[in-house]
Write a structure and sequence with these properties.
Elements: E1 5-8, H1 18-31, H2 38-42, H3 49-56, H4 67-85, H5 95-106, E2 110-114, H6 120-126, E3 135-137, H7 150-159, E4 166-170, H8 173-181, E5 185-188, H9 190-194, E6 200-201, H10 208-211
Bound molecules: 1,6-di-O-phosphono-beta-D-glucopyranose (B16) and magnesium ion (MG).
1,6-di-O-phosphono-beta-D-glucopyranose binds next to helix 3.
Length: 213
């Protein structure tokens, strides 16, 4: 086998929370009168919460905001986002992803998560994957956000494996860059695959079954 483990990004790879992020950021943006649309929302993929807020505030023209006020705005968004996440269930885990994870597990690969999201444990629980992964590295155990490789390096450490033995799976260009910067091979789906950001650029998640052999 080419790899001993696979480290998956969460949002955009295992499941999609794009719409909930959009709705929650939109409510926050409306509350301070800053324009926000789905195109800007796309730029927030894989980006940490505070860095996402800074991107949204690029169009803000009101009175200067203190760090404390920015923290309150991010918290306001997150509270609403968590309310939306309560709607998630195992039905939000696509069948193809579920079946592929089972097959990869049966092949003897270690499976881990490498996500920027501090809500990772809650999302995994909602989609029925709480306790499923061999390691979970997320926004709660990192100090630097993607494209810094920290989140993936910590996942590899938790698995006790060097980066060359782990394949990273990402949907965001910043995430693919993080994987490459950490010395990992990267397989991309979605936006990052269309941008050709990975060593492998997939049309379907199940292509992983061939890539790892
Ligand atoms: P939170 P990923 C990322 O998750 C999302 O793609 C990104 O849109 C979000 O801003 C970030 O998590 C932080 O999320 O506010 O829940 O901590 O793609 O790295 O799994
Ligand atoms: Mg992602």
């Amino acid at each position: 086998m080419k790899y001993k483990a696979i480290i998956f990004d969460l949002d955009g790879v295992i499941c999609s929370t794009d719409e909930y992020h959009y709705l929650a950021w939109k409510a926050m943006a409306d509350s301070i009168g800053v324009p926000f649309d789905r195109k800007i929302n796309n730029r927030l993929r894989g980006v940490s919460r505070m860095a996402s807020l800074e991107i949204i505030l690029e169009r803000y023209t009101g009175p200067a905001l203190s760090d404390a006020e920015k923290g309150t705005l991010a918290e306001q968004k997150n509270e609403l986002y968590k309310e939306y996440l309560k709607n998630m269930s195992p039905a939000d885990l696509p069948d193809e992803v579920n079946a592929t994870l089972q097959e990869l597990n049966d092949m003897g690969l270690k499976l881990a998560i490498g996500s920027s999201s501090k809500n990772t444990p809650f999302i995994l629980q909602q989609i029925g994957l709480g306790g499923y992964f061999d390691a979970v590295s997320d926004g709660n155990n990192i100090t630097r956000s993607k494209p810094d490789p920290e989140v993936f390096l910590k996942a590899a450490q938790m698995l006790n494996l060097p980066p060359r033995d782990c394949l990273v799976v990402e949907d965001a260009v910043s995430g693919a860059q993080a994987g490459a910067a950490g010395g990992f091979d990267v397989a991309c789906v979605g936006d990052a695959a269309r941008a050709g950001a990975g060593n492998y650029n997939m049309k379907a998640f199940s292509e992983l079954l061939q890539i790892v052999k």
